[in-house]
Design goal:
337 residues; alpha/beta; D-Maltodextrin-Binding Protein, domain 2; 2 domains; five-stranded mixed sheet; three-stranded antiparallel sheet; 13 helices; 10 strands; globular; disordered N terminus
Length: 337
């Protein structure tokens, strides 16, 4: 059963009334200038960086809590609990296929030769390849997203049958606890990325089993989405938001790692969320190589094809042209001037 189908009724109900919900708009009844969102503890997202750099103009972000799940984040956006959310592109495909009126507007994370989703075991683990994972537990941040897709593709390419793949258990573990869960043998493998991966390597005693780039090369992995009705009512706000995020991504490309980390620490200090900012010192990249996070067909077509093969969506159920737009991104061809 599609994990996202259960939210369809909520999506339809809530988004139908979102336009008259009474959310504060700019004075005079214009477009909204405050965007509700979920963050990540101890991290600075591209949207938060955009605001910190002053790239969002009059638009302000209102943090409503943290999340470790991309699918949950975009469901919150689809049902009107937040105004934007971000997730693995395959999760966006599945939610859109279930009928959710959302559109991806800019890439916000990816995998390249610097960062990505990497799967680790303890140095002394007997696990050497795909077949060794039968009957084992893999710690991932959420189900139905990036880590699950990569794991299943790794197992499939390793020659495991569907029945054997079903014997590999995916366990949801908060990313900040994944290293500890692995060291305490609560999971056999842990999915790590970014600063958490670097911290684990600094602590020692772990080795990488495989990486998402081993399977797919460099790619933009996830996008921010907006509801279609939000875009229709707030085109200028949507443009400001996307352009700001795009500029923030490019800012990280043109400034040193030390400058980026210093800005992250400044942003975290100012928001007073009682969080540990130490891990941002390991930051290397958002992993988005596309200029300004502009989205390409392949960023979604890859997962449409994969999900169709896996039987999670039907052939022709969703078209890549209906999943995203670059019209608000100043770095993309065909952007709104």
């Amino acid at each position: 059963m599609n994990r996202f189908s259960v939210v369809l009724a909520l999506v339809v109900t809530v988004t139908a009334g979102a336009g008259c919900s009474g959310r504060a708009a700019s004075e005079g009844g214009g477009e909204v200038t405050e965007l509700r969102y979920q963050g990540n503890a101890g991290a600075v997202t591209p949207a938060e960086l955009a605001e910190g750099l002053g790239y969002l103009g009059r638009v302000r972000l209102r943090w409503v809590g943290d999340t470790i799940s991309g699918p949950q984040d975009i469901q919150s956006a689809a049902t009107g609990q937040t105004d934007f959310g971000g997730a693995f592109n395959g999760a966006i495909v599945k939610l859109r296929a279930s009928g959710a009126p959302i559109t991806a507007v800019v890439s916000y994370y990816g995998s390249n030769d610097v960062v990505g989703s990497h799967f680790y075991v303890l140095s002394g683990s007997p696990i050497k390849g795909p077949r060794d994972l039968i009957g084992k537990k893999i710690g991932v941040n959420t189900l139905g997203a990036h880590a699950e897709a990569v794991t299943k593709e790794y197992l499939k390419r390793g020659g495991l049958t569907p029945a054997e793949i079903d014997q590999v258990e995916l366990i949801v573990v908060p990313p900040v606890n994944t290293e500890q869960a692995m060291r305490q043998n609560q999971v056999d493998v842990g999915a790590l990325g970014g600063v958490l991966e670097d911290a684990a390597n600094a602590h020692g005693g772990v080795r990488q089993l495989f990486a998402d780039t081993d399977l797919f090369g460099s790619f933009s992995g996830g996008s921010y989405v907006l509801r279609d009705d939000f875009i229709a009512r707030n085109p200028n706000t949507a443009k400001t938001f996307v352009a700001g995020v795009a500029k923030a991504i490019e800012w990280t490309h043109t400034h040193s790692k030390e400058e980026v980390i210093a800005k992250f620490k400044e942003i975290i200090a100012k928001r007073h969320r009682q969080e540990n900012a130490s891990t941002v010192g390991y930051w290397k990249s958002y992993g988005v190589d596309a200029k300004g996070g502009a989205i390409a067909d392949q960023d979604f077509q890859r997962w449409i094809d994969w999900l169709t093969t896996e039987g999670e969506i039907k052939p022709g159920q969703v078209a890549v042209k209906d999943l995203y737009t670059n019209r608000f991104n100043p770095y993309a061809e065909g952007a709104v001037s």
